[in-house]
C-alpha cells in the first residue's frame, strides 16, 4: 500500500448496476461517499440495492461483518443536485450511460462546480477519455478508473491517463484505487475498452452473432464454452452480469455498427429491458436467478 492519498470525500455520478457497486466499494473501504443521480426515484432504490449486495458481501468478502457493512451505508449520502454533490469532493467518479454528448455535458457541469483539487475519474466502458477530457475544463486532473462488475470480488481498477493527464494525478489515482481495495492495473497507452473490455467485448459479440444467426440457444452456447474450456461461466451469463442496458449503450456508441449488433440490441430492449428482465440485477435475463444464482435458462430466449 502506498502512502495515504488524503482522498476521503468521494462522489459517484450514476447509481445503476455498476455505479451503486462503486458507491459501496468506496464506502466499505472507509470513504465518505455522495451518490448522485438525476431522479430521486433512482436513489430510493439504493436501500434495496444495498441488501442485494449484502448477500454477496456475506458470501464473498472475507472480512465482512454486519457492523462494517452498516457503517458503510451510514457513510453514504445522496443527492439529485449535481453542483451540491461534487462541491466538496476530493474524487468524482462518473458512471453515467455510454453516450459521448451526455458525458461531455455532465463533465462540463462537474468541472465548473468541483473544487480545484478534485481528481476527475470516468468509468467509461468503451469511449476514449480523451474524447471528452476537455469538457471538464481541467484535463490535467481527468483520467479513467475502470471498475469490473461484481467489484467486491472482481476488484481490478484499470487506471488509464489521457495525453493531457498530469502524471502525479495518475499516481494518486493508483493509490486511491488501492485504498478502496482494488488491484490497480496500469494502462500504459490510451485504448478503447482498456485491457478487460478489449478482450471481453469481441468474445461477447461472437456469442451474440451465433445467437442472432440462429446457430444455438444462449444456454447451449454457454454450456459448450464452459465444458470445453473449463471456464466458470459463458458469455450469456456475462451479459446478465453486465446488464442489458450497458450492452445496448456500448453498441450504440460504436463508430462501426453491424446489422447483427443492432438486431441484438433491439432484442435486448424488446425481450429484456422493456420487460424489466435486463439481467442479474433484475433477477432475470438470459437466465432466471434465485439469490443471485442462475437456476434455469429463460425460455423467452430459446430459438
From TrEMBL:
Residues 9-190 form the 3-hydroxyacyl-CoA dehydrogenase NAD binding domain. This is Putative 3-hydroxyacyl-CoA dehydrogenase. GO terms for molecular function: (3S)-3-hydroxyacyl-CoA dehydrogenase (NAD+) activity; NAD+ binding. Gene3D superfamilies: N-(1-d-carboxylethyl)-l-norvaline Dehydrogenase, domain 2 (1.10.1040.10), NAD(P)-binding Rossmann-like Domain (3.40.50.720). It holds the Pfam family 3HCDH_N. Pathway: Lipid metabolism; butanoate metabolism; Lipid metabolism; fatty acid beta-oxidation. Residues 193-289 form the 3-hydroxyacyl-CoA dehydrogenase C-terminal domain. Keywords: Fatty acid metabolism, Lipid metabolism, NAD, Oxidoreductase. It comes from the Bacteria. Coiled coil: none annotated. The keyword Cell inner membrane does not apply. GO terms for biological process: fatty acid beta-oxidation. InterPro entries: 3-OHacyl-CoA_DH, 3-OHacyl-CoA_DH_NAD-bd, 3HC_DH_C, 6-PGluconate_DH-like_C_sf, 6PGD_dom2, Mito_3-hydroxyacyl-CoA_DH, NAD(P)-bd_dom_sf. The record marks 146 as: Important for catalytic activity. It catalyses: a (3S)-3-hydroxyacyl-CoA + NAD(+) = a 3-oxoacyl-CoA + NADH + H(+). It comes from Gordonia amarae NBRC 15530.
Amino acid at each position: 500500500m502506498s502512502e495515504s492519498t488524503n482522498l476521503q470525500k468521494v462522489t459517484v455520478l450514476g447509481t445503476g448496476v455498476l455505479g451503486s457497486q462503486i458507491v459501496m466499494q468506496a464506502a466499505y473501504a472507509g470513504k465518505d461517499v455522495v451518490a448522485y443521480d438525476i431522479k430521486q426515484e433512482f436513489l430510493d432504490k439504493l436501500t434495496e440495492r444495498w441488501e442485494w449486495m449484502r448477500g454477496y458481501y456475506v458470501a464473498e468478502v472475507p472480512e465482512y461483518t454486519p457492523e462494517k457493512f452498516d457503517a458503510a451505508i451510514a457513510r453514504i449520502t445522496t443527492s439529485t443536485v449535481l453542483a451540491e454533490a461534487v462541491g466538496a469532493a476530493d474524487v468524482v467518479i462518473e458512471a453515467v450511460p455510454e453516450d459521448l454528448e451526455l458525458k461531455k455535458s455532465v463533465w462540463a457541469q462537474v468541472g465548473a462546480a468541483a473544487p480545484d483539487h478534485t481528481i476527475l475519474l470516468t468509468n467509461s466502458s468503451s469511449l476514449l477519455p480523451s474524447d471528452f477530457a476537455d469538457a471538464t475544463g481541467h484535463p490535467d486532473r481527468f483520467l479513467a478508473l475502470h471498475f469490473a462488475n461484481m467489484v467486491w470480488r472482481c476488484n481490478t481498477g484499470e487506471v488509464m491517463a489521457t495525453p493531457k493527464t498530469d502524471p502525479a494525478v495518475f499516481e494518486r489515482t493508483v493509490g486511491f484505487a488501492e485504498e478502496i481495495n482494488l488491484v490497480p492495473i496500469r494502462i500504459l497507452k490510451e485504448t478503447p475498452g482498456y485491457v478487460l473490455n478489449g478482450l471481453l467485448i469481441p468474445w461477447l459479440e461472437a456469442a451474440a452473432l451465433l445467437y442472432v444467426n440462429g446457430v444455438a440457444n444462449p444456454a447451449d452456447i454457454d454450456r459448450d464454452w464452459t465444458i470445453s474450456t473449463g471456464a466458470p461461466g459463458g458469455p450469456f451469463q456475462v451479459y446478465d452480469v453486465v446488464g442489458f442496458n450497458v450492452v445496448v449503450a456500448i453498441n450504440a456508441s460504436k463508430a462501426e455498427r453491424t446489422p447483427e449488433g443492432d438486431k441484438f440490441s433491439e432484442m435486448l430492449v424488446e425481450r429484456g429491458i422493456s420487460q424489466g428482465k435486463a439481467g442479474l440485477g433484475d433477477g432475470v435475463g438470459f437466465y432466471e436467478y434465485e439469490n443471485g444464482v442462475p437456476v434455469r435458462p429463460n425460455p423467452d430466449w430459446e430459438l
